[in-house]
Amino acid sequence: MSTAPAPWLSLLVPVYNVAEWLPACLDSIGSQDLRGVELLLLDDCATDASPALAQDWLQRHPELDARLLRHERNQGLSAARNHLLEAARGDYVWFLDSDDVLTPGAIASLRRTLDRQPVDLVLCDFAYLRAQPKLKHRLRGEQHVRTFAGPSNAPLTDTPGLLTGLLELGYLHSWSKVARRSLWSDDLRFPVGRTFEDMASTPDLAMRARSHIHVPEVWIGYRQRAGSILAGASLNKTDDMMRALHDLPQRLHPYSESEAGVRFAASHFAARSFIGAVRFASRQSDAERMGHYCQAFLAALCMPLDDLMAQYLRRGWWWRALRLRHWLSRSAATPRPG
Asked: How crowded is the C-beta side of 75, counted as CA atoms within 13 Å?
């Protein structure tokens, strides 16, 4: 039996049909300080050269604690992440999509952060990676996207503040969160067969964290490309997005009842999701779906609709209030009284 110490970090990378981008992802990992880091790749039955590229890369780096796992049949991203979680041995786990990259020094910065304050959950920032970035992308601040609307560089034990800071900005990606593996107990997994799996799991993960810290550094390069899971909209995907809001007030209990900041942030997050979904359904002329999305949104609200509108106006968010009213009207819904 091996007496080697358990890794302090497991880096978990699902792989599926990303041959064009996988080498950059793996090279970005290989450039990090990987002492005490376990790298797990999982081939989800890719039909391109991705598995061969991954195997070749691992053979050229025999010094690493790294393995390539395989599914016998394609099961999707959620199942791949769940499998990787079950195989991980690290004290912390960090998901990385196989078309994205780690920025130079990201793991070393994470290690320094945890050496100073061994919190349960670490939040980082990201940058968009585009083949041809334009001026409008730079003006939007895509070179450094902040994922948390709250204090940075200080360990906190404020769960309501964590939920508020995450939901207000809406960046719930798993790859911008590094969590103690123990938070991912058997009753918390990604929903198999669905997209927007991060929306469905990240709030529950956050509520399990007794401590957290936001590090305002770009640790992830998030690639924008045609053919990615979220690049091509579809009604099935918008169904999944709205399904991820199911029982949101109950899932956020008791904070959804006792904390005004959580109520607003969660309701605002639900509104943004609803507008995105109903706009797409409108372009498909699917009035029935528009109505379903409206009802799902109203059920996901953590505060009366009129109070949400009042909060928008109080903050000077007139355009957001007008957009929400417009799409509620377009979906032919009658808002329930608050």
From this structure: 18
